[in-house]
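W.,

You were right to be curious about this one. When I first looked at the sequence I had no strong expectations either way, so I just let the prediction run and decided to look at it fresh. Below is the sequence, 210 residues in total, followed by the output.
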Amino acid sequence: MYRVNLRRLIGLGVMLVLCVGAVFAQEDEIEWEIKNVIHRQGYIGHEQTAIAMAKVLMEANYGKNFVVESSLTAKQERRSMDAIWRVYGILTSEADDEEPQVRLLVVLDRYTGGVRGVTNFTKKQNPYTPFLLKSSKKGHINDKKVATTLAEVILRSLYADRLTSQLPLKVRHKQGIWYINGTPAKGSDEPMVLLKMSRKDGSILAFDLA
């Protein structure tokens, strides 16, 4: 008789723990959902930010040792409804020609911080680069290290040296979204940075201070 009651009590205890965990998980998810704030100036408001982000993406796609960092240049194009950054670079080549064999292009959305496309092209293909932009089935930001580095670039453009107090960033992935938060010192009055990034294209889906 006592054994049966003990088993029931253990079962009820386990169920209670699972229910409490589910409630807290749901509250945490709701907390993230209500923080969908778009930065007024856009998440890529400066040329330096666009170049830094493009460098991360180029190195992730083509290898760190093959992207000529000094070659990176950015040009902003404003349209009726949005604005984009076109960042060009050069892929190193063993050929000793005057003209680089392969050029690189990353197109970024100024306001959402998203990746419109990544591609490489030759001099002959230059007029057709809009048609060469590559999308990714897995997503442009499918690596934790890339997500972390991009988040640091964006946050540093917004907070400058104050970002140091938020490092290291904590990053986790769930259902196509990177959840990123800062780690301010315990006992500090400084609010925690929260960032939600799309794995598909890197768009900032949420940004706030908790």
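Here's what jumped out at me. Residues 142-209 form one domain. And, maybe more interesting for your project: The radius of gyration is 22 Å.

Coffee later to discuss?

I.
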